[in-house]
UniProtKB/TrEMBL annotation:
GO terms for cellular component: extracellular space. Its main location: secreted. GO terms for molecular function: odorant binding; toxin activity. GO terms for biological process: sensory perception of smell. Gene3D superfamilies: Pheromone/general odorant binding protein domain. InterPro entries: PBP/GOBP, PBP_GOBP_sf. It is found in: Secreted. The keyword Secreted applies. Belongs to the PBP/GOBP family. The keyword Secreted applies. Keywords: Secreted, Signal, Toxin. This is Putative odorant-binding protein 2.
Length: 152
């Protein structure tokens, strides 16, 4: 009986620790080497084009990219910026269907494990339009791995 009680207490303690871990905000990794400067530089022209097209600002993009994953930013211009990036990178079609095979090819070699993990858990985007679907994907990516997620 004493052994069973100890096991129950241990199980409850482990569950509480797990739930606390899940609910704790995770800080995005931001240092000299992350996000990778070469990736940011490669996508800089698309960023500028899509900011102009969508009306998104650097501030709102950074707020989503670097902010708390538990309370993501809701902004129409940001959502359409994300859609524009996907279209300009040629990883979605005109209906918003994501070509995950093309998206996987865009993931840098040193980020394959991180990128593939995000993609595997976010394969069925939902939304009423293309901007909403793009936002759903980015929100999912960020929730899967808030430490490594970044928005170009």
């Amino acid at each position: 009986m004493k052994c069973v009680l100890s096991l129950v207490i241990l199980s409850v303690f482990c569950l509480m620790q797990f739930l606390q871990l899940e609910a704790r905000p995770q800080t995005p990794r931001r240092d000299e080497s992350y996000p990778p400067r070469d990736v940011l530089a490669e996508y800089r022209p698309l960023r500028e084009l899509c900011k102009a097209e969508s009306g998104a600002t650097d501030l709102i993009i950074e707020e989503f990219s670097d902010g708390d994953h538990l309370t993501p930013v809701e902004d129409r211009a940001l959502k359409c910026y994300m859609n524009c990036i996907f279209h300009q990178a040629q990883v979605v079609d005109d209906t918003g269907h994501v070509h995950f095979d093309k998206l996987r090819l865009k993931v840098p070699e040193d980020l394959k494990d991180v990128g593939y993990n995000m993609l595997a858990k976010c394969e069925n985007p939902v939304g009423e339009d293309l901007c909403e679907k793009a936002y759903w994907l980015h929100k999912c990516f960020k929730q899967v791995d808030p430490v490594h997620y970044f928005l170009v």
